[in-house]
Amino acid sequence: MQENFVIHPDYSQMAAKLRDVLHNFSKTGEYVTKGERNIIKTVQLEGRSLNIKKFKTPNAFQSLVYQYLRKSKARRSFEYATKLIDFGIKTPFPVAYLEIFSGGLKESYYVSEHVNYDFDFRELIHNPRFKKRNEILRQFTQFTFKLHENGVNFLDHSPGNTLIMDNGNDNYDFYLIDLNRMRFEEMSFEKRMRNFRRLWLSKTMVKIIAAEYAKLYGKSYEETHALMLKHSRAFQKKINSKKMRRRRR
């Protein structure tokens, strides 16, 4: 049995306690999410509220890949969060990660600070009359533009992965979560528009976001809207087709 435990210097004083919590994950904390793939718990440690994400144990082949060829999801989450913060992009602060190996990766955990957010992006989709919706969408577009300008291609840019905090006075903060699928690369206009496809945007939402992005990027509204809508509709059609095929089985 071999393990790799990395903790942010700001949290080094609680390293021993946190390591103990991770080794006793099943017995500590309160469940936030208990899914088939991943489990998230929240724990209180030295007066701080932390979220711990335990990733699903990979199959035999993948476990060897994660030990020798590719960084684990936990490690990527920690390192990507650190990069985002360096860019001035908000995400729950990365505290630590733990990898346990035994003939491959057996367990992995990512620890971050708990964020008391007000709602997530899904609310804007499900409630067209959400208060200040248009303003929030414009600020979200500015947030996404900042990602792209810093060469961040967030491959899981989907409705549940942006937490939103209302600071009052029409000012909102956006926090990215579920970070392990990300590329750091030059973002062409095509890649930027494709990056909006998973957000499940309505026609009205596409209009608002395209107008704001066109101003920021210096493209025409017509070109921006057309490409964003094309990628958005293609993705929605693909997902709906999959759902239809499942229903027929």
From TrEMBL:
The cross-references to Pfam families, in alphabetical order and at most eight, read: Kdo (PF06293)
The protein's matches in SUPFAM superfamilies, at most eight in alphabetical order, are given as: Protein kinase-like (PK-like) (SSF56112)
Any one Gene Ontology MF annotation carried by this entry is: kinase activity
Keywords associated with the record: Kinase, Transferase
What InterPro entries is this protein classified in? Kinase-like_dom_sf
Q: What is this protein called?
A: Lipopolysaccharide kinase
Organism expressing this protein natively? Aequorivita aquimaris
